[in-house]
Amino acid sequence: MTQRMLVPPPVHSEAAKLHRDEVKMELENSALWKQFSSQGTEMIITKKGRRMFPGLRLKLSGLNPSFRYILLLDIVPVDNSRYRFQGGGWQAVGAAEARLPDRAFIHPDSPATGAHWQSRTISFHYAKLTNNTLDTQGHIILHSLHRYQPRVHVIEARDMLRWGGGQHTFVFPETQFITVTAYQNSKITDLKINSNPFAKGFREDGMNSKRQRDARQKRKVVNLKDTLENANCDSAEFLPEPTSPRTDLQALGLASLPQPPEPRCVFKAGEASYQDVLAHDQSLDLGQSFLASGMSDIGIAMNHRMQERQENEEAERMIER
DNA sequence: TCGGCTAGCACATTTGAAAGGG
DNA sequence: ACCCTTTCAAATGTGCTAGCCG
């Protein structure tokens, strides 16, 4: 299998500039992404599939309002390395795993008119990442501890059967991330907890915060002790197993001890040499791709859906009359 | 022994159905 | 009958942790 080129053509080429004037994509939550990126973004991947956080929130402009477009998200490896978090930073420690068949996530609104895409914020929050190579749910399959770059493709629907023509690829370097099955960098964990509403329970004032969890643990031990005492047993024999060293430290309030000096972070996400670039020359090689939304035969499915939509819109127009 | 992965947990949010009122 | 709001439960999304595995 041929490796796809990742780096798009030079930004300043006349062709690119002309094209940039036509179709533009903006990463709406770029500030949040940059916050994560400055620490080395980590994305959890699980067997069942995990959403990305932050998600990709995009604004599109320059489309023809009446043309129909399909939006795709795919995620490609940035390099051929496997990474390990050591000494407070991410370091390449060996060769990457064999590359998996590419999967692209089709935005559920696809195909939709340019007017549709341009009238709202486009979100890919339904896309899920998995490390299950046998996944049948259509999630995007990635290797753990590898560095990836999400890309968004805008394809004119009438061109969908001849991939490579009339498509625009957008890459935002700040959305690069390293896949993990458990967070490595506590700063990333804190950022996620503080900015993801679903993780509110883990915030300082939440019921799942360290403080509350430790208190619960304490109460558990006390209750168990009481129970054992009431049952008149030899409590020493039935005391719970000692907790992990980390929990012990937390319980003792040692978590607040000064942290070791922050070593130099090896992964500098801002180093990427391209930004918000149209990779027009780099055709989306969908011949190699499995399309993740479950529509393996995208042509048939899209045609069907387009026809359905046209019928619906026709019906709506008739009602309006 | 160690690093990485997984299942189960508690908690929060989201979603959709049902109920009630105007 | 319809619309809107409220309530509730189920589903889903989170990070944490103990234990397993290679």
How would the blueprint of this fold be written?
Blueprint: H1 14-22, E1 24-27, H2 30-37, E2 42-44, E3 50-51, E4 57-61, E5 68-86, E6 89-95, E7 103-106, E8 112-113, H3 114-118, E9 122-123, E10 128-130, E11 140-141, E12 146-156, E13 167-171, E14 177-180, H4 186-195, H5 210-230, H6 235-238, H7 245-251, E15 277-278, E16 290-291, H8 298-320
Parallel strand pairs: 2-14, 7-16, 10-11
Antiparallel strand pairs: 1-4, 3-10, 4-9, 5-6, 5-7, 5-8, 5-12, 12-13, 12-14, 13-15
The chain binds a DNA duplex (22 and 22 nucleotides) through residues 44, 46-47, 50-51, 53, 84, 131, 144-145, 180-183, 189, 192-193, 196-202, 206-208, 210, 213, 216, 243-244, 246-247.
Structural overview:
The chain has 321 residues and is of the alpha+beta class. The chain has helices at residues 14-22, 30-37, 114-118, 186-195, 210-230, 235-238, 245-251, 298-320; strands spanning 24-27, 42-44, 50-51, 57-61, 68-86, 89-95, 103-106, 112-113, 122-123, 128-130, 140-141, 146-156, 167-171, 177-180, 277-278, 290-291. The strands form three sheets. Strands 2, 5, 6, 7, 8, 12, 13, 14, 15 and 16 form a ten-stranded mixed sheet that branches. A hairpin with a 2-residue loop joins strand 5 and strand 6 (89-95). The longest helix has 23 residues, at 298-320. The N and C termini lie far apart (54 Å). Residues 1-20, 231-283, 285-290 and 292-321 have low confidence and may be disordered.
